[in-house]
């Protein structure tokens, strides 16, 4: 070696990108739907659904969910949610019911189950 060492950067990689399950490659483009639960006071909880594609009408989805799950809910706008997109907020713990609704082909939206992530407890 002649005193000069060559630094070689093989691949630049985004550490925050999700790893693709099949090939191990990281993909930043795939959008996930996040279902979260937040504790309010005592036994009261809020369920938030973030990342529903824009091709669906959020107001109609909220109306169906409220009627089906017998709960109240609201849509948090993009400006209030600080860049997280439109977020549907429901009273109570409805994480599993929401997942079933989103993946149901007949009565729901028929989305892929791999794109849904449930967070909390």
Automatic annotation (TrEMBL):
Keywords attached to this entry: Protein biosynthesis
Annotated SUI1 domain residues: 33-106
Pfam annotation, one family: SUI1
Alphabetical list of InterPro entries matching this protein: SUI1 (IPR001950), SUI1_dom_sf (IPR036877), SUI1_euk (IPR005874)
Source taxon at top rank: Eukaryota
Coiled coil stretches, renumbered: none
Segments of skewed composition (Polar residues): 1-10
Entry's family note: Belongs to the SUI1 family.
Protein name: SUI1 domain-containing protein
Organism: Humicola insolens
């Amino acid at each position: 070696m002649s005193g000069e060492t060559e630094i070689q950067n093989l691949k630049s990689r985004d550490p925050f990108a999700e790893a693709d399950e099949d090939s191990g490659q990281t993909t930043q483009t795939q959008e996930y739907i996040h279902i979260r639960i937040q504790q309010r006071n005592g036994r009261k909880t809020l369920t938030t659904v973030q990342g529903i594609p824009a091709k669906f009408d959020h107001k109609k989805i909220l109306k169906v969910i409220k009627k089906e799950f017998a709960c109240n809910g609201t849509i948090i706008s993009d400006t209030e949610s600080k860049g997280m997109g439109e977020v549907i907020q429901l009273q109570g713990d409805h994480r599993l019911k929401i997942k079933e609704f989103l993946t149901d082909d007949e009565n729901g939206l028929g989305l892929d189950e791999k794109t849904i992530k449930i967070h909390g407890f």
